[in-house]
Each structure stands twice: as C-alpha cells, then as structure tokens.
Design brief:
By secondary structure, the chain is α/β, with parallel strands linked by helices. It contains twelve helices and 19 strands. It has two domains: about 180 residues, Beta Barrel (Lyase, Ornithine Decarboxylase, Chain A, domain 1); about 230 residues, Alpha-Beta Barrel (TIM Barrel), CATH 3.20.20.10. The strands form two sheets. Strands 1, 2, 3, 12, 13, 14, 15, 16, 17, 18 and 19 form an eleven-stranded mixed sheet that branches.
C-alpha cells in the first residue's frame, strides 16, 4: 500500500509533484539502488560506487552468505588513521593513537589499525588476546574499564600493557597481584581521573583519590611504573576535554614534586563522526514529531549524526584551544613534554562498514501504516534498544528493474523475531518504490557501535557474517576471521 493521506509527510521527503530520485546502477547490472530522499548517508566515494554502480554484487553476496551481512573496509580505517595522525604531527611533538577495539568485533579492523601503526585500547581479556593475535605490540596496548578481574590484571602485567587504574581499590588489587608474584613483576599504569563534568559518573578517581594514589605510587617505583593520567568524558565537545586537561595540570605538578614522571595524558575518545549532511539533519530534527514514528514517541536524544565537525576538524580545534594560563593545548603539552594519547573508536571506523538486510515481506497494518520485515533483527542495529534511532535512511536495492511509484511508501522496519519491539527503526522512512521480497536494505557507516554491539543467536539464528571487501571498492570479498571460522 502506498502513502496514505493520514500519515504526515516526513521531513525532507518530496511530495510536491517533483519526480523522486531515479535509481542508480551500472547499465549492465539488473539490480537497482535508490537514493534516500530525507536522511541520505554521507558516503566515501568508493563506497558510493560500490552501492550504486554494482548493486548486483551486493545481491550476490547476500545470496551466498545470508542476511544480515556486514561488509568491512579495513583500508578506510587506515586512511582515517593517517588523516588523524597528520593533524597530530602538525601540532604535537609526541602522540599516540589507541584504536578503541570495543567499537567493533571485526578482527580485520584491529589488524588494520595495528598495520597503520596504532596502539589498541582494550576493555577485556578477550580484546587483549585478539589484539595480540593480530600482531599488536603489547606495550602499545592500553586497558581501560573499571571492572578488571584478577586474571585480566595478570595478563596485562605479564605482557607489559598499560593499565588505566580506575579507582584506589583497583590500585590495591594490582598491588596484591604484584606482591603475590616474583619481585621482577612490574606494572605500567595511568591514573584515571574523574573530571568535574563527570562527577555523577561511576568511572574515574576523585581529586583526593588521585592525590592519595600518587603518594602510593611514589612509594613503589620499582613495581609500579607511573606513566601519567587518563580521563574519558561523555559527549563530543572538545571544550569539555580542554576543561578536564586544565584540571589535570595541578596533578601533573604534584606528581613531579613526588619524583614521579608523568609522560602521557590520555584524553579518551569522543571524536565526532559526520553521518549525514548537517543542514538535512537539523531540518529533520526541527520538523519531526510523534506522527513520524510508528510508536508515536520522539526519542529524547540522538547521537549527533549531523555533526558540523569531523574528527580531524575537532582535533584541530582541541589542540588550538586556550588551555592552562591561556596557553594553547598543543603548547601546554609541549611545555610539559607530554605525549597526547587518544582512544578513537567510532571515528576510526567511520565509513569502514556496511550492513545489509534482505527484505522478507511488506505488510499493511490495520491502521494503514506499512511495515517492512527483514531477515535479521534489531540486535544487529542497536539504536532502538537504547530508546533512540539510527538517523540514516537505508538504501533500497531492488533486485529487478523497478519504476518509481506515483507516491512514496512510508514504512518502519522490523526484524524477524517474535518480539513486537524487534524494530530496526521506529521512524517512518520514505521509499520511492515499493520494496519487494528479496530486495535489500543497505545501512551505511555501521562500523561504530552499530552493527554488532548486541548481536546474538536469538531463535537459533546464526550470528551475522562479516566479509572484508577489496581495498578501493572492489567487489571481491573474503571472510573476516582470526581462526579460519566464518564469523
């Protein structure tokens, strides 16, 4: 059923008599890819060519490997590393990038980061093991997280990785581990500070705990190698990181008075990603209302998908911002001979993955709305589980030549489980032609926390598979594995 008059026009949707966008594909490709009409994803050129010029290749991959299917481009992550490093090299003497492995389960992305010269940020023994198996230098692995087990501490100490201590209690646990082992055991540590802006967080140490921990570290220099400080803030404002860095300045001086030598300040992640054009995104936010959602609930918050800054522009502004005593952040770091460490995850995975879902059928409900069912679930597209939405329109690939409809179809997208809330998007999305069973929905830029954060085998469905695509946008694909098993 096509658009019913009682359903509101979505922000950005053309219903003014102009033709909807035409399908785009190579002339010899029987499949057709349709450009979204409202929140079209920003696409890296080779990704755009892959989708719009060779949609039949995506159809073939889904036919062979099933739905949902995640397609990985490690070369794009490496390109993002090079771009970020270029900014750092212009402004800092010493810097370190730790790829946040938690952002995605792909071993190919971990290997790509290591091959590009980054360290790895890990939050579990399993991420540590994968980083080591991928060839990572253990001394360039940094372990964050507040709930490290004794076994995790033992692995980190054994390999010489950096341990970010989240609390005085964790320091005590690490001391106990060192005391129980041979005298040669030595741990390399950071103290994770809780900035004023994060006082309600459960992560990090209070100012007094930092001071107490510094004194304890000064008593055990042979076993505890103090490297510096760490903090991690929610949100994406570079100004908040500057404020936290200013707060750390006094602790840097206090550490040196105790004959400690802080060399690193790790400011965590939170570098933004631009998913859609800023103007289109802001127009959508201004115009949206309850009628634009199948459950009539406008989410309270979204990731800022229409960021006006990308990660590199954000980093430029952070390093040039006035910090302690009005001195630029970059000058403050140089004055104290400090290495600036970052833990980007989402921003390094920017444009490095696509997720593809096969449509099983389209159903008209009793209230006139339409729902598109896909082979896959919202466990593989996680924003609705956090009462939010992934504000990118999926790209429809029709398997056969299809003409634009006279009107748009408005539909939300649901998964294949028996749960009524198994919904990939509550938002009513405009489609310029009626999807058919076997057609595909391609979600762009899913590498950052989106495609596999919650994936599971509900209803005994196998885990979604991952394939690594050729660098440069070729259509050849190989399994993304560590051990030969197709994941």
């Amino acid at each position: 059923m096509l658009h019913d008059t009682h359903i509101p026009v979505l922000p950005g949707t053309r219903l003014d008599g102009r033709r909807q966008p035409s399908p785009r594909s190579h002339r010899d490709d029987p499949a057709r890819a349709w450009e979204p009409t409202a929140l079209a994803p920003l696409l890296e050129p080779s990704i755009s060519d892959f989708i719009y010029r060779t949609p039949g290749a995506i159809v073939d991959l889904v036919r062979q490997y099933g739905s949902p299917l995640n397609l990985i481009r490690p070369d794009i992550l490496q390109r993002n590393v090079r771009a970020m490093r270029a900014v750092l090299e212009r402004h800092t003497r010493h810097h370190e990038i730790f790829y946040g492995a938690k952002v995605n389960k792909s071993p190919a992305l971990v290997r790509a980061a290591i091959d590009a010269g980054t360290g790895i940020d890990v939050s579990s023994r399993h991420e540590l093991a994968d980083a080591l198996r991928a060839g990572g230098d253990a001394r360039r692995i940094c372990a964050s997280g507040p709930a490290k087990t004794q076994a995790f501490h033992a692995d980190l100490v054994q390999h010489g990785a950096i341990i970010s201590l989240d609390s005085s209690q964790e320091l005590s646990a690490l001391e106990d581990h060192l005391d129980a082992g041979p005298h040669s055991l030595r741990a390399r540590v950071l103290l994770r500070y809780q900035p004023t802006l994060s006082r309600n967080s459960r992560f990090g140490m209070s100012p007094q705990d930092v001071r107490d921990s510094l004194r304890r570290l000064a008593l055990r220099p042979q076993q505890l190698d103090f490297l510096g400080f760490h903090f991690h803030l929610g949100g994406y404002a570079f100004e908040d990181r500057v404020a936290a860095l200013i707060e750390l300045a006094d602790f840097i001086g206090e550490a040196r008075r105790l004959s400690l030598a802080p060399r690193i300040v790790n400011v965590g992640g939170g570098l933004p990603v631009r998913y859609v054009e800023s103007d289109a995104y802001e127009m959508f936010l201004r115009a949206q209302g309850p009628d634009h959602y199948r459950n009539r609930k406008v989410p309270a918050s979204f990731y800022p998908y229409g960021n006006r800054l990308d990660a590199c522009a954000w980093l430029e502004q952070f390093l040039n911002a006035p910090g302690k005593d009005g001195r630029r952040v970059s000058d403050f770091l140089a004055h104290h001979d400090l290495t600036l460490a970052l833990e980007p995850g989402r921003s390094l995975a920017d444009q490095a993955a696509l997720s593809v879902f096969a449509i099983t059928h389209v159903k008209t409900l009793v209230d006139g709305r339409c729902v598109i069912f896909v082979e896959g679930s919202s466990f593989s597209a996680c924003e609705t589980w956090f009462a939010s939405e992934f504000l990118l329109d999926p790209i429809l690939i029709s398997r056969d030549a299809t003409k634009p409809a006279d009107d748009v179809l408005l539909a939300y997208i649901a998964g294949h489980s028996c749960l009524d809330e198994d919904v990939l998007t509550n938002r009513l999305i405009a489609f310029p032609t009626v999807p058919q069973p076997g057609d595909l929905l391609v979600y762009a830029n899913t590498g950052g926390y989106q495609m596999d954060l919650l994936e599971n085998e509900f209803h005994r469905h196998p885990m979604p598979r991952r394939l690594v695509l050729d660098a440069g946008g070729g259509t050849r694909a190989i399994p993304d594995t560590l051990d030969g098993d197709l994941r």
